[in-house]
Design brief:
Structural class: alpha+beta
Strand order of the largest sheet: 1-2-3-4-5-14-6
Shape: globular
Order of helices and strands: EHEEEHEHEEEHHEEEHEHEEHEEEEHHEH
Distance between the termini: 31 Å
Helix content: 10-25%
Largest sheet: 7 strands, mixed
Strand content: 25-35%
Length: 401
């Protein structure tokens, strides 16, 4: 008999052990979850699938927006291919729809194709850099009148929080970090033999940027030279001066063979500031996926840059309450979503494509060129592109949630 329910407090150690085992992460990563935030599958009383959702807030083209941060999704090998995760997700979405307080779910996917079938769309891309320090030459000289210094984490953690909060203010995709998220992400302990350093740039008495990085041995090479490796864990700069000061300091690491940053923003300014951006060896990978569970509510949560009328038919069999034809009326102050079944529409699209578009990862024109939607009025594409543009490219900087 299949039962889908939250785990009890007594069952949480087993939920953590199974999620750790199936997902291949350290057991200490699976702690601190409120049992009420879980939704697990039990087959004849035995734990078969794990699932949980943190209550998070994410910047949605500026405003803070509540999301369900889905995590711990796993199924024991003995129970796979039996539809347990599908049943859990359906129950979770039904709950979100009935409660009507959280319109969006998001997650870090192990495999994108798993979650596309449930209407999740990729909403941001991650950029990674791997650069030799000597190749960080700036194309234009920028004066940096401030000071760069190492900070004491115990005494000055608030400096990092303040910079991060100011950076995320108008952004698109960054989450509100609690202390646990800091500790499990950018402030995670360095590997054995490595050390952590935190530098903050201040100008006119105000902190304008910081970088957290680990240094230590580990760069493999066949020729002579340093084997030191520098890994950037977190870096946020509010001004060109702060960006320049931070990366000039990293470039002066003479004993470091390679600098690596796995999660730069797609619109990060560094490639535009250095003389040879190709030497950053930029690689692109997918980031988080989002699901517009209550689509009509979700579309009204973000600001739009201009007044427009966007008419579309949404194909959504998994969340059938979203299925049908809709009109999104936007302006810079407010927006409204209205059902218009039976009326003419500009586009027909699926829930995953709409999620990618509404976060600004792809435009309607990009989606049409990729065959991800059906266009009924070619003239509408430019209107959709303009109305859905975001102030910044979507960017999610978390190591985990």
């Amino acid at each position: 008999m299949l039962e889908i329910r939250p785990a009890t407090l007594e069952e949480m150690p087993e939920v953590g052990r199974q999620a750790s085992r199936q997902l291949g992460f350290a057991p200490e990563m699976f702690q601190g979850m409120n049992p009420a935030w879980t939704l697990c599958a039990f087959d004849d009383g035995k734990l078969a699938s794990t699932y949980a959702a943190w209550p998070l807030q994410l910047r949605f083209n500026g405003p803070a927006t509540p999301i369900a941060g889905v995590t711990w999704v796993s199924t024991h090998l003995a129970y796979r291919r039996r539809g347990f995760v599908r049943a859990i997700i359906r129950k979770h979405f039904d709950q979100l729809h009935e409660e009507a307080g959280t319109a969006i779910a998001a997650l870090h996917p192990a495999w994108m194709r798993i979650y596309q079938r449930y209407g999740y769309g990729t909403v941001n891309m991650r950029h990674s850099y791997e650069v030799e320090p000597r190749n960080l030459e700036f194309v234009r000289p920028i004066d940096t009148p401030g000071t760069l210094r190492e900070v004491d984490l115990e005494e000055e953690f608030g400096l990092l929080v303040d910079i991060y909060r100011r950076f995320r203010e108008d952004r698109n995709g960054l989450v509100h970090r609690g202390k646990a998220m800091w500790d499990a992400g950018p402030l995670d302990s360095p590997p054995a033999g490595h050390r952590r350093t935190i530098l903050v740039y201040k100008e006119d008495g105000q902190a304008q940027g910081y970088v957290i990085f680990h240094t230590g041995p580990g760069y493999a090479r066949t020729d002579a030279g340093s084997t030191q490796h520098l890994r950037v864990m977190d870096c946020f700069a509010l001004t060109p001066q702060a960006q320049t000061a931070i990366w000039r300091a990293l470039a002066s690491s003479d004993n470091v063979a390679i600098i690596r940053w796995d999660n730069a923003a797609p619109d990060d300014t560094l490639p535009n500031m250095i003389a040879e951006p190709r030497l950053l060896n930029i690689k692109v990978s997918d980031g988080i996926m989002a699901r517009l569970v209550n689509m009509d509510d979700a579309l009204q949560l973000r600001p739009y840059p201009e007044t427009a009328e966007l008419r579309f038919n949404l194909l959504d069999d998994f969340c059938e309450w979203n299925n049908g034809s809709w009109r999104l009326d936007t302006d810079p102050e407010t927006s409204e979503v209205t059902r218009i079944d039976g009326e003419n529409v500009d586009l027909t699209l699926t829930a995953d494509t709409l999620a990618s578009m509404i976060f600004g990862r792809i435009s309607a024109t990009d989606a049409a060129r990729a065959g991800l939607l059906e266009v009924h009025d070619e003239r509408a594409l430019a209107r959709w592109d303009s109305a859905l543009r975001t102030k910044y490219a979507p960017y999610e900087a978390e190591h985990a949630w």
